[in-house]
């Protein structure tokens, strides 16, 4: 291990490749109710609580990475909500906005309440309530045991 202060654990931007920008904007806009802080025909950025989420044309993203275009990998993004009662309505809105229900909401063995939905490009989102992970007024989730 190197001497000096520990590395800052930070995430600045998550960019998801999309096959259809308009379809993705509908999913994120009508489903989550998010509005982009920047958008062009093939890209949009959403200011999140401490980082930025981008959706970008999948072929353009692959070209930018100098990597062959490929389907999404085994990744699940999570959106935590403040109450258990908020999980199902959000899953329903996301499906109505073009998402695909992957797993209906239920209580996992480790506690809380969650369900999974895929965006129009197959990126998995866990919509979760966890009583041990409080959410402050700015929307920041704190991991507590």
Description:
The protein is an alpha/beta fold. The chain has a single domain, classed as 2,3-Dihydroxybiphenyl 1,2-Dioxygenase, domain 1 (Roll), CATH 3.10.180.10. The protein is 21% helix and 30% strand. It has helices at residues 21-32, 58-65, 87-96; strands at 13-18, 38-40, 43-47, 52-57, 76-80, 100-106, 113-118, 124-129. The protein has a 4-stranded mixed β-sheet. α1 (21-32) packs antiparallel against α3. The mean pLDDT is 86.
Q: What is the element layout, followed by pairings?
A:
Blueprint: E1 13-18, H1 21-32, E2 38-40, E3 43-47, E4 52-57, H2 58-65, E5 76-80, H3 87-96, E6 100-106, E7 113-118, E8 124-129
Parallel strand pairs: 1-4, 5-8
Antiparallel strand pairs: 2-3, 3-4, 6-7, 7-8
Helix pairs in contact: 1-3
Biggest β-sheet: count, sense, barrel?
4 strands, mixed
- Helix percent reads 10-25%
Residue fraction in strands: 25-35%
CATH architecture type: Roll
Number of separate domains: 1
Roughly how many Å apart are the termini?
A: 27 Å
Classified in CATH, the superfamily is 2,3-Dihydroxybiphenyl 1,2-Dioxygenase, domain 1
One letter per element, helices H and strands E, the order comes to: EHEEEHEHEEE
Which residue ranges are poorly predicted, with pLDDT under 50 across at least 5 consecutive positions? none
């Amino acid at each position: 291990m190197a001497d000096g202060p520990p590395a800052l654990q930070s995430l600045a931007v998550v960019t998801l490749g999309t096959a259809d920008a308009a379809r993705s904007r509908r999913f994120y806009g009508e489903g989550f109710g998010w509005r982009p802080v920047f958008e062009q025909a093939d890209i949009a950025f959403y200011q999140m609580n401490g980082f930025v989420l981008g959706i970008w044309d999948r072929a353009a993203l692959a070209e930018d990475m100098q990597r062959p275009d490929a389907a999404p990998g085994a990744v699940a993004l999570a959106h935590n909500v403040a109450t258990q009662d908020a999980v199902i309505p959000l899953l329903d809105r996301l499906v109505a906005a073009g998402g695909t229900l992957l797993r209906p909401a239920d209580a996992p063995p480790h506690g809380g309440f969650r369900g999974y939905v895929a965006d129009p490009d197959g990126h998995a989102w866990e919509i979760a309530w966890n009583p041990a992970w409080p959410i402050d007024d700015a929307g920041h989730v704190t991991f507590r045991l």
